[in-house]
Amino acid sequence: MLEIRKTSAENIRDVQRLWADGDVMRFVGFPEGLHKTDAEMADWLKWIESGRPLIEHYSIFEDGFYCGEAFYNIDTEHFGSCSLDIKLFAFARGRGIASKALSFTMKEAFKNGARSVWVDPDPANAKAIALYKRLGFKEKKRPEFLPLYEGFESAVYMEVARDDLLTTVFESERIRFVRLSELLLKDYLAMVNDMERVGSLIGRTEQISEEQELDWVLSKIEENGPIFSMIEKNTGDFIGNIEYMDAHKTEAELGIAITADKQDRGFGKEAITRFLDYGAGELGLGRVFLKAFRRNKRAIHVYEHCGFREYKGYAKELYMERFL
Question: pTM of the full predicted structure?
């Protein structure tokens, strides 16, 4: 069984042994291995621990045997660019371990804010390059902000963006409507936990944990219902989520949440208009209704512009509908 664990003090000797192996380290400039003292390894682990979750190092085990490492480092100053690396002992290669470990590490990097992940293998490392291509990496021009160290001028820069791994179902002028994804977990969590500008306006009464949000995401993915995340085409930024809930024959309730940074920019009207077309054309809906809090006057204004009209009201909330 494959296990991928966050590296801790109990794994430090394994990492030290891995780095000292010349066969492992030859493609990164250390054909005789990289030999570090215990004190140097302890300092390195402190650096990893202090940088989490923007930096993470994993120890890889198969059936209890240490196989190698995987690592990511997110650069928040350069558009969420994230370096990625993996090293395995010779006995662990060619068995699918690298593919599984890299996929896991990429997912964790994206979940923690990376917008793209990159590698720069030695051109002689054909097996690594082939693996990266299978995982969706493409050769690109190296960004100017990434230094090119002496002796590595021929390194092959390869990159995959988070958005490349999101499944687009339909689009509007400025928005891609994509399937819900664990890769957007941090965006989801930041949005719903913004209680003043988002959370309280969609019925949240308290903040939720990452584990709770992940459970919600996984349940929605399993349901495979009409819920989508919205991505701005020009920037790749997360806009929000939109969903048809409790669909019954030709009727459904519409729910929408837009992250605070993307409010008051016309995304709500554009998203709802396109989603109504999707509901009528793809789902056969004839009536869509929604609930709004009366204090959320901006949202009510958008709903009215999209053709919704109040049909039932209470002191603090109202219900609106539109026939398609």
Answer: 0.79
